[in-house]
Amino acid sequence: MATFKGSTDQFAIEDAFGIGKYITGLCSFVMDCETPLTIAIQGDWGSGKTSVMAMVQKKLAEDKQPVHCVWFNTWQYSQFNTADSLSLSLIDVIVSGLGLDGKDKAKNLRDTLGRVGSGLANLGKRVAYGGAEFVMGSVNTEDLRKYFEKDGVANVKDLQETIGALKEQFNECVAEACAKKNVDRVLVFIDDLDRLQPLRAVELLEVLKIFLDCEKCVFVLALDYNVVVSGVKSKYGEDFKADKGRSFFDKIIQVPFKMPVAQYDISSFVKKTFEAVAGGVCEETDAKNLVAVINKSIGSNPRSMKWLFNSFLLLLKVVGDDVQDDNSKKILFAVLCMQQHFEVLYNHIVMSIEELNVEFFEGLASEGDIEALLDSENISGVDTDAVVEFMKSFNKVLCAAGTQTIDERNLDILRVLLKSSSITSTRTTDAPKKRASYSYKGEVYKARGGNKKNLGYFALRLLQDYAQETDKTADEFMELINASIPCHYSDMKKEGWRQIEPYAKIPKHLMEWYFTESGESITIKGEGIVALRGWGAWEIGVLIDILGFEDKVTAHV
Questions:
Q1: Is residue 236 within 8 Å of residue 131, measured between CB atoms?
Q2: Using the 8-state DSSP alphabet, how is residue 555 labeled?
Q3: E strand residue ranges, 54-184
Q4: Domain residues of the chain, as ranges?
Q5: Closest CA to 501 of 530, 535, 465
Q6: Sequence-distant (≥ 6) Cβ neighbours of residue 519 within 8 angstroms
Q7: Could you tell me whether strands 255-258 and 217-223 are parallel, antiparallel, or unpaired per DSSP bridges?
Q8: DSSP-assigned states of every residue in 282-295
Q9: CA–CA separation, 553 vs 543, rounded Å?
Q10: Cα gap 145→526, rounded to integer Å
Q11: Residue 548 CB: number of other CB atoms within 10 A?
Q12: 62-99 confidence digits (pLDDT tens)
């Protein structure tokens, strides 16, 4: 089995996500379409646009198709060229890529290019609002001359003829290259347009349309439609109408191809890469769980998954002995997904992990519990629906093998791993906060404590002991407590419940929703009382004051 050594940000030339039919379809279209034609490969950063273009080029070569390919990386050239010369670089690279150096037609084209000079380079910058109409073919010779005079090239006798000559000479170079190489067409890949400032991307598109739109040429561009819209607005003003923006895009781009990210089959990729990183075999069920936590967090963006596996590899090397078994490695992987996409939740868990229990994680995966739970934990700024869906998958990784129950031993593993995982976080995680706890009659009670050591049960314990010293009925206790400690959880308010309630009032099927532990209750004069979830330091402090137990309870902050 190959050992994973980390992924770079280089494009892929092998199909790792089962999109072969899209590559085949693009290749077939490129070879059969009428020319000239421009195709836009659209998608977010990291979605694999460059990889798709590379796979198209590779398949065309493997199938020995009669096409000559030229590649231009706008990002690479923009690092060494000013905005004024990027357009010139595009034309020069394409001409060089045709392989006609020393030929008369290529020499003539470069001579003409030199005569146009900075006027061509600055065409996109100099055209005002009418520039969009210019691309669409409605600007006259005098308008054209005016744009170039601003760049000191008014000595060109008839600029429109010069530009026409440039386009004609480029067409002749393409035709000669096709004849020389015995191919039907030239395929030009223009990559990373969406890494440019939107304004520069639009200017490059204008030059492409005006000068290079020639027979036997197919252009494939990696860009995002939103970048074009943003560039058009930057250039022509916010009042540039949306339909004009669409017309601008449609005039330059004849065929939009959106990256089929939703159709990516990441199962095989995740399984193979996880095995390569972690060693051993990743069973199908485990792979399914890992895919689920990916889909519910970072999604199937290839660049994001590279980041995930690189971070996973780094942490495996850092935590060492803590992740020797496969189970620990799967938990660490799920933690990284949470860290990347649910940072607020991740940071809270890191700060509170010693006090969190099974009920907390199950509550995060319950649509009925999560809002009250987040409220009680003072967690804000999270998408509750997204958290619920993610935690359903996350909790499956924490479950004991072959069960649907979270294993306490896995929580212990999680506590260990969280102490090291923060080194790959994009933000600094604050030091863990200490939560209030209370000592009473030799026992310690704290938030979400296990084995009836939580604050809700502590409240009941105090009430039960106090009841032995008074003649108050259960109703009197409930009136006393609820008047001083109001319920502040929306779901409880909706049901009309308060801080403590008669046991008989709560439907049995909701016990686990609203109680720290199912069935927790005390009996006062024959009537059972339960404490609802959410008891914190403030509520316990008020209760201690009401009961006069200040000397009997020791608070630890």
A1: yes
A2: E
A3: 67-73
A4: 37-261, 267-424, 437-556
A5: 530
A6: 511
A7: unpaired
A8: --HHHHHHHHHHHH
A9: 11
A10: 99
A11: 10
A12: 999 999 999 988 877 666 555 556 777 777 788 888 88
Query: Helices in 222-342 by DSSP H: which ranges?
Result: 225-236, 242-252, 267-278, 284-295, 302-319, 326-341
Query: Left, alpha or beta for 554 (phi > 0: left; psi -120 to 50: alpha)?
Result: beta
CA dist 395 and 384 (Å) reads 16
Q: Smallest Cα–Cα separation from 503: which of 534, 460, 545?
A: 460
Question: pTM of the prediction?
Answer: 0.63
Joined together, the tokens standing for residue 415 give 């506590």
Burial 331-360 (b: 16+ CB within 10 A, else e): bbbbbbbbbbbbbebbbbbbbbbebbbbbb
Query: What is the amino acid identity at position 447?
Result: A
The better pLDDT of the pair 489, 280 is held by: 280
Residues near 498 by Cβ (< 8 Å), separated by ≥ 6? 478, 482, 486, 487, 492, 532
Supply the pLDDT for residue 130. 36
In this predicted model, what pLDDT tens digit does every residue of 298-338 receive, in sequence order? 888 888 888 888 888 888 887 766 666 888 889 999 999 99
- 469, 456 Cβ separation under 8 angstroms: no
Q: Quick one: which H or E segment has residue 403?
A: none
User: Which residues, 6 or more positions from 286, have their beta carbon under 8 angstroms from its beta carbon?
Assistant: 326, 330
Question: In 3-state terms, what secondary structure has residue 127?
Answer: coil
Is 71 in a helix, a strand, or coil? strand
pLDDT digit string (tens) for 10-61? 666 677 888 899 999 999 999 999 998 999 998 887 788 889 999 999 999 9
C-beta of residue 329 within 8 angstroms of C-beta of residue 316: yes
Q: Is 406 helix (H, G, I), strand (E, B) or coil?
A: strand
User: What gap in Å lies between CA 503 and CA 518, rounded to an integer?
Assistant: 11
Classify 320 in phi/psi space as left (phi over 0), alpha (psi -120 to 50) or beta. Answer: left
